[in-house]
Every structure is written in structure tokens, then in C-alpha cells.
Amino acid sequence: VEIKHGRICQLAFLGQIVTRAGLRLPGNIATDGTKFSDIGEGWTGSFQVPTDGALQILFFIGFLELFVMKDVTGENEFVGDFRNGFIDFGWDSFDEETKLKKRAVELNNGRAAMMGILGLMVHEQLGGSLPIVGDL
Fold first, then answer.
1. Measured between alpha carbons, how far is 96 from 113 in angstroms, rounded to an integer?
2. Closest CA to 85 of 94, 93, 96, 76
3. Do the beta carbons of residue 26 and residue 134 sit within 8 Å?
């Protein structure tokens, strides 16, 4: 569970920084003409997503959780190994010590991201300004 939450928080933190930098997907988020650029950042933005879009996100995450992001082949080497004999990216070429070190780095980065996104969410609710991120 910690690895999964760490991976999600890494994406959340990156998403916060990218959207606050002004980078948005092109086009519309809904058929009523609402653009991605019309959606705010952070908590405010999460409540501005149209209901149909939020439901699509919920169902997509549920699909990933139930059918994709799990060990379906029984070949996993460790908790959080969702390759399922499909994607390798050279993992099998590392020795055991390197694998252990890389897993520890991912775990620590996930922990840092959990604290980072929590800090951004708290500061957003408190208001004020942060270096790099700007006004919240």
C-alpha cells in the first residue's frame, strides 16, 4: 500500500507543479465547451471538473485497481512489481544489490512525495505564497 500511495503522490506532486506552471492539455474537457485551461489548480480545480469527467476518472482508477495494477501472472519479485511478464526496461539485468537499492530509492521518493503533496495541500488551504509554486 505504501508503494502505491507513494507512486500516486509522486504523480500528484508533479501534477501540482506542472499545472501551476501553466501547462495544460489542449482542447476541451467536456462536450459543453469547458476547456482544460478553464479548470483551476489543486482543490479548487478538483471541484471544477464536470461530474461526467470525475466519474470517468473514478471508473478508470477502479478498472486499473481491479484488473491491471496487480500481479495476475504470479511472477512478481516484490510488492509493487506489476510487470506481469510484459514490461521489463532492463530490470532483470540488475544484480540483487542494485535492485534492492533502486526499490529503496523508489520507496523514499514516494515518502518524500507524500509529504510534499500534503504540504502543498495544507498551504493551499492556508493561503500565501511558496517559492517556485507561487501564490496558492
1. 26
2. 76
3. no
pTM of the predicted model as reported, rounded to 2 decimal places: 0.78
Q: Which region holds residue 127: left if phi is over 0, alpha if psi is between -120 and 50, else beta?
A: left
All cell numbers assigned to 41? 489548480
Neighbours of 105 (CB within 10 A): 10
Is 73 in contact with 84 (CB distance < 8 Å)? yes
Task: Report residue 84 as a C-alpha cell.
Answer: 506481469
Task: Please state the φ and ψ torsions of residue 129, each to the nearest 5 degrees.
Answer: -135, 145
Report the C-alpha gap between 7 and 110 in whole angstroms.
6
Give me the DSSP letters along 83-113: -TTT--TTGGGS-HHHHHHHHHHHHHHHHHH
Distance, in Å, from the CA atom of 42 to the CA atom of 47, rounded to the nearest integer, reads: 9
pLDDT tens profile 29-71: 888 888 999 998 888 888 999 998 899 999 999 998 888 877 7
- As a whole number of Å, the CA-based R_g of the chain is 18
